[in-house]
Design goal:
The protein has 531 residues and is of the alpha+beta class. The chain is 43% helix and 10% strand. It binds adenosine-5'-diphosphate and magnesium ion. The site of magnesium ion has 3 residues, from loops. Its EC number is 2.7.11.1. Keywords: Antiviral defense, ATP-binding, Cytoplasm, Immunity, Innate immunity, Kinase, Magnesium, Metal-binding, Nucleotide-binding, Phosphoprotein, Ribosome biogenesis, Serine/threonine-protein kinase, Transferase.
């Protein structure tokens, strides 16, 4: 790769030949050929700063690759140690994998070149042309880390945006001459700008709210139409790529990821699919050998692949969309990164649960949107969901008390609310209940955390009451037992109203003091709501 002046690229003394793979003699020969036949004349060997032996040195190549990978995935490397991440011991015997990696590299370079051309042609012109359609990589497939945001810190973020104000039902605000109706041009224009947030995530709307943009109805409608047709087009393109494979949910990139895991020996074989949901696909695999001695890979693993299509992502955002403090940050992330965030969340939540001793899958490794964990079940047969097993009344009672205990632990020790707890996400294995599916779990101080907890309690309570456990608390008693709060309302409506009032109080406090009401002495402490 020549570096230096634009007109006259020079290799000698400047060029670096990087080789990050163990090359076969044939490849070395070829590469050397190319090197010697460089179009800008034979290299001045005397000025080459390192010997050919150095150039071909595997050591140097590894260092370079490591450097590059550290720059690309600083966090993931910290999370997941192993041969497969650092690039050591990568088995390069698979031509298919090498070819796919080369192709990806080529596509990225091709796109970068397109972008450069685009920039050159457009210059400062007000009218610009776009080469978007010619790009090889879907915009959101690209792994550029330019706008990488350390999402884990989001909850410590200072309060950012204001809640958007709405026009009251009556359709106007103000009095007398100062009356402002909902048809007011400015109000309407701002509202239209805000409504652009609802467009598909890949439709970049810019910071219209920040610069107080006012869109007329006509412009807004035209943009809306355009956004819809773009969304359909993008979905079509994406679908074509995805549905061309046998395993519908696994796109080429994911397949490559899985392939690498097997290739690195971390997984023995991937046997098949256990479940295909709207948001994830779960596979069974036999565990392989661990690179490090302190980490043991379970004999059987479950691989949860979070789906990366936009549609699924849109269904998931109910857990964050009302959390207006996150909105700013989320709008900056592209969908692929948000999906990775769910996978990361699941990993962190499982780790917290593991530390508290709650029966749950043990995290093996996280790589992008693919989470490998221990398999709950045996011989490729997953443990049945609680809804699918028939338990004796003795076991049913045992399961109930165990869940009550787990919910309390989850809240008090892990500082979490499951937020999707039901007989669908509890497995019965080894005579006890195991909790799974915690990517959506939130901390109790989430603006809707207590409502989620109440819903969990209702699911659990109803399941066991129907299942004939006479001791099962009703949802309100269960809620108090888990949270340690003492809400006294004796009917559901009032109870929920009190929950919402508590949440609001907490949020108001955040607005006024920039801090949650709860006092966290450490990360694991539950919140304490008081006046
Ligand atoms: P989703 O968000 O799609 O509901 P889940 O995490 O609930 O994803 O997984 C879907 C299904 O896959 C579960 O109902 C369960 O049957 C199976 N499953 C998930 N994780 C494991 C695991 N670690 N061991 C065994 N089965 C699992
Ligand atoms: Mg589930």
């Amino acid at each position: 790769r020549p570096e230096g002046g634009r007109e006259e690229p020079r290799w000698a003394g400047h060029g670096v030949v990087r080789c990050s793979r163990q090359l076969s003699p044939r490849w070395r020969e070829l590469l050397l050929d190319v090197y010697l036949q460089c179009p800008w004349g034979a290299p001045n060997t005397t000025s080459i700063s390192c010997s050919l032996a150095d150039v071909m040195s595997e050591q140097l190549a590894k260092e370079l690759q490591l450097e590059e990978e550290n720059a690309a995935f600083p966090e993931v490397v910290a999370v997941a140690e192993g041969p497969f991440i650092t690039g050591e011991n990568i088995d390069t015997s698979s031509d298919l994998m090498l070819a796919q990696m080369l192709q990806m590299e080529f596509d990225r370079e091709y796109d970068a070149q397109l972008r450069r051309e685009e920039k050159k042609i457009n210059g400062d012109s007000k009218v610009s042309i776009s080469f978007e359609n010619y790009r090889k990589v879907h915009p959101y497939d690209s792994d550029s880390s330019e706008d990488e945001v350390d999402w884990q810190d989001t909850r410590h973020d200072p309060y950012r945006a204001d809640k958007p104000t709405t026009t009251p039902r009556k359709g106007f605000i103000g009095k007398g001459k100062d009356i402002t109706t909902k048809h007011d041009e400015v109000v309407c224009g701002r509202k239209n700008t805000a409504r652009m947030e609802n467009f598909a995530p890949e439709f970049q709307v810019g910071d219209g709210i920040g610069m107080d943009l006012k869109l007329s109805n006509q412009v807004f409608n035209a943009l809306k139409q355009h956004a819809y047709s773009e969304e359909r087009r993008s979905a079509r393109l994406h679908e074509k790529k995805e549905h061309s494979t046998a395993e519908k949910a696994v796109d080429p990139k994911t397949r490559l990821l899985l392939y690498k895991m097997v290739n690195a020996g971390m997984l023995e074989t991937i046997t098949g699919c256990i479940s295909t949901g709207k948001e994830s696909v779960v596979f069974h695999a036999y565990g392989g050998k661990s690179a490090t001695e302190d980490k043991v890979i379970p004999p059987e693993c479950a691989i949860k692949v979070f789906k990366t299509t936009l549609n699924e992502f849109k269904n998931r955002d109910k857990y964050i969309k009302d959390d207006y403090r996150f909105k700013d940050r989320f709008s900056k992330l592209n969908p692929r990164k948000i999906i990775r965030m769910w996978a990361e969340k699941e990993m962190h939540n499982l780790t917290r649960m593991q530390n508290a001793g709650i029966p749950c899958p043990q995290v093996v490794i996280l790589k992008k949107h693919v989470l490998v964990m221990s398999f709950i079940g045996q011989d490729q047969v997953p443990a049945p969901k609680l809804k699918d097993v028939t338990l004796s009344s003795e076991d049913m009672k045992k399961a109930y008390y165990q869940i009550l205990n787990m919910m309390q632990q989850l809240y008090k020790e892990c500082n979490l609310v499951h937020a999707d707890l039901s007989e669908y996400n509890m497995l019965w294995h080894d005579g006890k209940v195991w909790l799974i599916d915690v990517s959506q779990s939130v901390e109790p101080t989430h603006p809707h955390g207590l409502e989620f907890l109440f819903r969990d309690c209702r699911n659990v309570s109803q399941f066991f009451q129907k299942g004939g456990v006479a001791e099962a608390l009703n949802e309100r008693e269960l809620f108090n037992a888990v949270s340690g709060l003492n809400i006294t309302a004796d009917n559901e409506v009032d109870f929920q109203a009190e929950i919402e009032a508590l949440e609001k109080m907490n949020e108001d406090h955040v607005q006024n003091h920039g801090k949650k009401l709860s006092m966290f002495s450490n990360d694991g402490d539950p919140p304490i709501y008081d006046e």
